Structure formats: structure tokens, C-alpha cells
Amino acid sequence: MDDILAAVDEIESDYEGNCRAAREIALEHFAAEKVLGSLMSRAGL
Questions:
Q1: CB under 8 Å to 18, separation ≥6 — which residues?
Q2: What is the CA radius of gyration of the chain?
Q3: What's the maximum distance between 2 C-alpha atoms anywhere in the chain?
């Protein structure tokens, strides 16, 4: 439980920065163009 609370405190200490970082990760790895392109390629389309 202490580790969880420490992690939440860390996130909240720079909430805006962590939001930006999470958005960059999501755009890099989960962008529809990338996901659908990869899926279609694996499906042979």
C-alpha cells in the first residue's frame, strides 16, 4: 500500500507533465493509423 501511495504522490507532484508524457506515449503507440495499419497488414489486407 505504501508503494501505491508513493506512486500516486509522484504522479500528482507533476500532474501536467505526466499528462503530456502519457499523451505522447498514447499517440506513439495507439494512434488509429498505426494500429489499423498494423492490423490490416497482419490480416494480409
A1: 11
A2: 16
A3: 49
pLDDT tens, 1-45? 999 999 999 999 999 999 999 999 999 888 888 888 888 989 998
* Total-model pTM: 0.58
- DSSP per residue, the chain: -HHHHHHHHHHHHTHHHHHHHHHHHHHHHH-HHHHHHHHHHHTT-
CB 18 within 8 A of CB 11: yes
